[in-house]
Amino acid sequence: MKNQSAAITIFSTFLLTAGSLATGSLTLAQSGSISSEAAAVASDSNTTVFTVPAQNSQTINYSNPKTLEQKVKNFPGGPQSDLSFPATGESGYKPGSKPNSSASGLSVKLADPAAISPSNSVESDNFGTSNHPFTTARNPQTVGYPYSPSGKLYFNIGSSTYVCSASVIQRGVIVTAAHCVANFGARQFYSNWRFVPAYNNGTAPYGEWTANRAIVPTSYYTGTDRCSQRGVVCDNDVAVLVMNPKSNFNVGDYTGWYGFAYGGSGYTTFLNNTATQLTQIGYPVALDNGQIQERNDALSYTNSNGSFQQLIGSLMTGGSSGGPWVINYGIPPTLNGTTAGRYPNPNIVTGVTSWGFTDANVKQQGASVFTSSNILSLYNTACTNTSLLACR
Fold first, then answer.
1. Is the pLDDT of residue 358 over 80?
2. HEC assignment per residue over the chain
3. Which of 142, 256, 275, 292 could be a cystine partner for 198, CB 3.0 to 4.6 Å?
4. Is residue 1 part of a domain?
């Protein structure tokens, strides 16, 4: 796998606007006021929680969300032989679940469908200048487990609408990238998150869900996280949102939810790298106008230069930020005459899309490694400080 020295972009969608702040080779967007009242924020050494106000006059533009690029240069990437994960105290996983059969009937239309020709379906480019092979294509379906827990995440910065990707990891908890939730080092949260699981060209098969609490690593919130360059390619670009229930049902009751792994669980040593096979899910705006859920399959390996990262070959672009990287994605087969492998647990998230190269020829993306100090700590905070309905 070829070491790259090129510009990198974080792959949420967000338009750089007048008044952007340049910090070295990094450009951070500062767009409008950000809803974050000090009284609604509580921090400890590991996590920072923002309790979302009950009343919000902001609106979401589903038809034309804006695009974000945060750029750095010369990420010192490269494969590392026999790399150990930076887990704090433990490794492991939590299982997912199929939907609750009694939860149904939430499909709504959010926007007029876009005209997307079947002949323009996305195909694999095999590999880019990174020499990292991958296959990218439209997900053949979004309705039904295990496709339904992935979706599109809309939110506001000021009066403008932005978009990322996200997925359900517990009955009322979703995971996404921290840069889709908070402004790195500015002690500011964004606002008005709307999660649309299984979004498909203007239609929300399972409705849309609002957030009750947003939780990010305190190191990301305060700007002390270790990053290749400030705010980009960081150890802890991970966040969770606790979603509001509807009539005593949570989003996961309708969609089911993925499990998640941390501390290297599900990885193995392969070709002198710590590696695993992953499926990446997201809504990149450069593929089918961001209207269709895309799937990317590639071998992931870990990297510790600059900060601990998982790297995959990928065709995805802006809008895919926060989308899950899933081990053993799909419906497991029934076995007869053979046995499962050493890590057979299906539909386990091990990271979320965080960044990629601005050079479209590289075709490689990265994610913060899931550890017990980021994803597990966020999950435990979500399930300790909220109604048990979200986590039981």
1. no
2. CCCCCCCEEECCECCCCCCCEEECCEEECCCCCCCCCHHHEEECCCEEEEECCCCCCCCCCCCCCECCCCEECCCCCCCCCCCCCCCCCCCEEECCECCCCCCCCCCEECCCCCCCCHHHCCCCCCCCCCCCCCEEEECCCCCCCCCCCEEEEEEEECCEEEEEEEEEEECCEEEECHHHCEECCCCEECEEEEEEECCECCEECCCCEEEEEEEEEHHHHHCCCCEEECCEEECCCCEEEEECCECCECHHHHHCECEEEECCCCCEEECCEEEEEEEEEECCCCCHHHCCCEEEEEEEEEECCCCCEEEEECCCCCCCCCCEEEECCCCCCCCCCCCCCCCCCCCEEEEECCEEECCCCCCEEEEECCCCCCHHHHHHHHHHCCCHHHCC
3. 142
4. no
Report the CATH number that the domain containing residue 143 is assigned in CATH: 2.40.10.10
Domain housing 260: 8-390
Q: What is the pLDDT of residue 169?
A: 97
* 3 in a structural domain: no
pLDDT, mean over the chain? 82
Tell me whether residue 2 is in a domain.
Answer: no
* pLDDT average, residue stretch 181-187: 95
Inside any domain, residue 383: yes
**pTM, whole model, 2 decimals?**
0.86
